[in-house]
Specification:
Layout: E1 3-7, H1 12-30, E2 34-38, H2 50-58, E3 63-65, H3 76-79, E4 102-106, E5 109-117, H4 129-140, E6 146-152, H5 156-166, E7 172-176, E8 186-187, E9 193-195, E10 202-205, H6 212-221, E11 232-244, E12 249-259
Bound molecules: fe (ii) ion (2 copies).
């Protein structure tokens, strides 16, 4: 039974370092076949670069997804076309560079991966995520044995609705973007693993991965300022999904959280 680990939004150097320290051992211990990570905050907390992505791949990540911070790093819009294991959200305008999905393969099992952006309280120009999933699933028919969908969205209602919309049609619908892990991991009745938010991989003594004080100050006076990445209480957060390739359904969906300094 293929098993995948999805790692929630990697935030800055602390997030990259805990992946470097822990991922290979975790992977062996849990018998993981596929490792996917959201890298939208991996470069200094905002966006991604090819060099930063390489540190994730060197640490054992095999596919990197993105979210609304996809274009935050200058030059990434030209780099992305050359990065074969990275996909940008599938429902961005078709004019945007980059792949809209990835297909991973292990022992003859093909896992397709794509992300859709939500549209509630998210400012990106994007196609309806529900219809985008329909379009992507039609395009992927016959090209993959299972599909992993990431819903990168603010509203839990939008994430839950998409989970139900895709139940039985994909292996998993896993949420990202809010950086706070939710306690609702399940396998929906028709066999789709679901979780509203996989949490972030980075410093939890923070506000969503950033230093606390400037964020509080911004809420108090509304003035713009830099939000450096925080450092304390670093955790790797994600979810493990096990898929029964014969029954064609997910059989397990378990959140995973590893703290820096935890025994392996
Ligand atoms: Fe994020
Ligand atoms: Fe995001």
């Amino acid at each position: 039974m293929p098993k995948l680990l999805f790692i929630g939004d990697v935030v800055g150097r602390p997030g990259r370092e805990i992946i470097g320290d822990r991922l290979l051992r975790l992977r062996n211990k849990l018998g993981i076949d596929f490792v996917i990570a959201n890298g939208e905050n991996a470069a200094a907390g905002a966006g991604l670069t090819g060099a930063v992505a390489k540190t994730l791949f060197d640490a054992g990540v095999e596919a990197v997804t993105l979210g609304d911070h996809v274009w935050d790093q200058k030059g990434f819009e030209t780099e992305i076309a050359h990065l074969e294991q990275i996909c940008r959200p599938a429902n961005l305008p078709t004019a945007c560079p980059g792949r809209d999905h990835l297909i991973m393969e292990k022992n003859g099992f093909r896992l397709a991966v794509f992300t859709v952006l939500g549209r509630q309280y998210l400012g990106m120009k994007s196609e309806c995520p529900f219809l985008a999933c329909d379009r992507m699933l039609s395009a992927l028919a016959g090209r993959a044995d299972a599909v992993f969908v990431e819903i990168h969205a603010e509203a839990t209602s939008e994430k839950q609705a998409l989970g139900w919309y895709l139940d039985g049609r994909v292996a998993a619908v896993i949420g990202t973007h809010t950086h706070v892990p939710t306690a609702d991991a399940c396998v929906l009745p028709k066999g789709t693993a679901f979780l509203c938010d996989a949490g972030m991989t980075g410093p939890y003594a923070s506000v969503l991965g950033r230093l606390i004080e400037p964020v509080i100050a911004r809420f108090l006076d509304g003035m713009p300022r830099r939000f450096p990445v925080a450092e304390g209480d670093v955790r790797l957060s994600g979810v493990v999904v096990e898929y029964d390739a014969v029954a064609k359904r997910a059989v397990r969906c378990e959140p995973l959280m590893v703290r820096k300094g935890d025994p392996s």
